[in-house]
């Protein structure tokens, strides 16, 4: 039976989403094409009808995973709420559906430019989402300060999550990384909030 164009696109999207989850769980080298296609419900032979190479799929899956992070924690979310959600035990334990940057950032550094470019583009999108649309005044001092604050927060949050996941699941240190870093970042954010002028 012939597959329609719409069905082929849906199949491809399903493979990308499946790959995004499996790569976050096992790393790029921990998932072979045959295992990936089987998990998506397709045959190994169908892979090269959809993708030029595993690297192409890695780049697409990175973009997909970062877009999911933005949808869950970025778009319209205040920085403090982003920090609370990101540095939670629930997020820490949800490796397959959690942040692609924390799960695969180290792996991505050893990948071709196409994969690193997908990460850079995704990170820029997250920065824009967390900057609350300050792009209209991108050259202003306030916008540059907001961007610097967001970059600092993302870097600290990703690092804390990576360190927490590096510890055994039942290790007190795993929770301590999340708690200490979350409290420190929330304290910094609270200290930099500009109080609103009193109404007259």
Structural commentary:
This protein is mainly alpha-helical and 200 residues long. It has a single domain, classed as Tetracycline Repressor, domain 2 (Orthogonal Bundle), CATH 1.10.357.10. Helix content is 71%, strand content 0%. The protein is built from 10 helices and no strands. Residues 133-137 and 196-200 have low confidence and may be disordered. It comes from Paucibacter sediminis. Residues 32-51 bind DNA.
Counting DSSP H or I runs of 4 or more residues, the number of helices is 10
Task: State the helicity in percent bands.
Answer: over 70%
Label the overall shape. Answer: globular
Whole-number radius of gyration? Answer: 19 Å
CATH topology-level fold name = Tetracycline Repressor, domain 2
Q: Which regions have little confidence, pLDDT < 50, spanning 5+ residues?
A: 133-137, 196-200
User: What structural class is derived from the secondary structure elements?
Assistant: mainly alpha
Q: What is the CATH class name?
A: Mainly Alpha
Classified in CATH, the superfamily is: Tetracycline Repressor, domain 2
In sequence order, what are the helices and strands, one letter per element? HHHHHHHHHH
Largest sheet: none
**Mean pLDDT across residues:** 89
E-strand count: 0
Total discrete domains: 1
Distance between the termini: 72 Å
Oligomer: single chain
How big a fraction of the residues is strand?
under 5%
Question: What is the CATH architecture annotation?
Answer: Orthogonal Bundle
